[in-house]
Amino acid sequence: MSGTFDALVVADPRFSGGSTSALVADVAAMAGLGMRLGLLFVRSAYLDDARDPVNPAAVALCDLDGVTPLAPGATAEAPLAFLHHPLVFARGIEERAHLTASRSVMIAHHTPFRADGSLEYDPLVAIRRAKAALGLSAWIAPVSPTVRAQMAAFAPLLRQTGDDWPNIFDPADWPVTRLPFDGGPVTIGRHGRADPLKFPAAGPEIDAALPAGPDICVRVMGCPAEALAAAGAHPEDWEVLPFGAEPVADFLNTLDVFTYHYHPALTEAFGRTVVEATLCGRPCLLDPRLEATFGDLAQYCAPAGVADAVRRLAADPAATRLRADAIRDRVIARYGAEGVAARLDRLRRDPGCASRTGGAVGPLTLARKMAGHWRRRLAGADG
């Protein structure tokens, strides 16, 4: 199979989290512009368990108008190519193809360094292996300033796009169907995978981040209740729903405030749930580590400050709703699908950036971390 397209997209369809949600939104937005897209699905050694199923949302992209599935061994060309997730390519992919593009980017949905400072994957290896397997020489397109700062540590051996490539959202999927603080009980909450790392580490901090009480109700969709209880928290005080029990937009509209605080061992590369909440018109109280990504689109506090912050928001509901409306407009401008055409145009003209300015670590520290990473890999450990 061969062909000429407006853009090529390469991804492993077996991921189940935010990276596949971002892939789906990107492809859908480009298809919505009438672009002709060549889509190559690959299998990465990172997901080397045969039991990992394909994500139906990724497979459904093949049915979109303008999307042509590419088979392994295909020859295809386009002005732009998008390779999703460096982890896919850092561990190697099974497929080979002959792809050509004037500008190729590897969208970095994940930071290379873990929260403890160890190196989880080597982006230089990801770029080299993608080149060997597909013929594309990719720049890194970070999804956030957090990812950009970590990737800058590898410059000038890699080049990043001048602009970040954050996740794309269709505002129509995230309507405001109920105004926050509409006179009912004040309800706060969050949704996400039932992963203990998505919550603070200690019981008192978990309870403080989701402070159920006489004047505050808590709803959580996706909750590792047993693990949190073992840490000393009290999830029995919350209304806990299984992950996916309600459509996410419906769930978010039941909240007055969206809150999100997480484990010190987790680094959030982006934070899709935050954008979803703001699009649904919810004010957000977030872990301060997310300020680098979202800036003045949210408010930030430690878990201990959540209860007082919620009460301040509830004390002036009209002002809170007005601020949430203004933030929603800015979020649409920054992340909305209607902005994709302009983003693509900037990408075509992007001179790129190979500066180490703002790099998370210096050259000597990076060398030590890379040595440790490869020692662990040679010993059979997971990075």
UniProtKB/TrEMBL annotation:
This is Glycosyl transferases group 1. It comes from Jannaschia rubra.
